[in-house]
């Protein structure tokens, strides 16, 4: 219905434009006829028919087929002039058609049309005014006014429009790329952390399966809880891309794993500083001793800062699980000099002489921090181990 309404509205506007143009040309032609020399042919029915035909076809074809519109306008103008009718405003149709060709079509095509139109204009004016004493002047005016000027203006509009479209397309592509990077970072944080814990717990379960079945059972339960929570977080994130916010899951029929995990305190929790104790407990259950020092904050954190701080700790502990070997980790969260300082350090394999390798996790972490106006430092510690320090604003970042 809306498409039909737009088409009807466009047709009305085109009809109105054609009517106004035809009226202007008719009355202009009458005025021009009164000022012409006796050599000009008297205006008659056929003269006005040509004028109206030029106006209607120019308007009707200017959007759908501008090249054909220019061809028809040139043909009608040629018939009008060669028939000896008074020189008048009918050439306005050729000007409009030439402008539309240059505005809508490629530079190569519009240049070709401009050259052909210039030749046709030269031939028509030369034949019509061959007896005139100032024929070169008339030819120059016709060539410039009918062809070159409207083509130049149309080409300029075409170039500006194309530049704007390229800028818009580049913006769309940049936004899409940034969104893909954000999604990739979220998936990396959620899945990477979960898989690291699952791998460690599975290794523990295999080691103690025969001699300590109870500890193996605890490891398997931790694997179940971690995988269920990671699945819940992934579904929650991916659900935001579905039109109804429910992802691919029917909201009336929740998945059994999701439903079960919602009742498990290990599978729910906040993605923010409030969820750090739970996160640390999961990592400890995976076999990595972690000390958490979370100082009370005098200033409430903005939501995006809260999430980024959590993700920094999560990714840092995941890296410790993956790369540090037998070690311990220390997590410190404090408010210092108007900013939030997040520090995660371990005593693992890294040495001060080593150059930190910028993997996807560290790169994504740095991107998250910088997106909210913070800074991140990561590298080996003096005495061995690795340290990540993020400095975050307390109130968010207005980009």
TrEMBL record:
GO terms for cellular component: membrane. One of its GO terms (molecular function) is ATP binding. Residues 239-274 are annotated as: Disordered. Residues 257-267 have a biased composition (Acidic residues). It catalyses: ATP + protein L-histidine = ADP + protein N-phospho-L-histidine. Residues 179-244 form the Signal transduction histidine kinase subgroup 3 dimerisation and phosphoacceptor domain. The chain crosses the membrane at residues 15-35, 42-61, 67-88, 109-129, 141-160, 190-209. It comes from the Bacteria. This is histidine kinase. It comes from Amycolatopsis taiwanensis.
